[in-house]
Amino acid sequence: MNKKIVDVDGGVTVLGGGEVDSAQLARATALAPCLVAADGGARTALSEGRVPDLVVGDMDSLGKARGDLPPDRIIQLTEQETTDFEKCLYSVGADFYLALGVSGSRMDHGLAGLNVLARHADKRIFIISGQDVIFLAPREMALDLPPGTRLSLFPLGPVHGQSEGLEWPIKGIAFSPLGRIGTSNRCASSQVRLSFDQRHMLVILPVEHLAAALAATGVT
Question: Has this prediction a pTM greater than 0.85?
Answer without folding.
Answer: yes
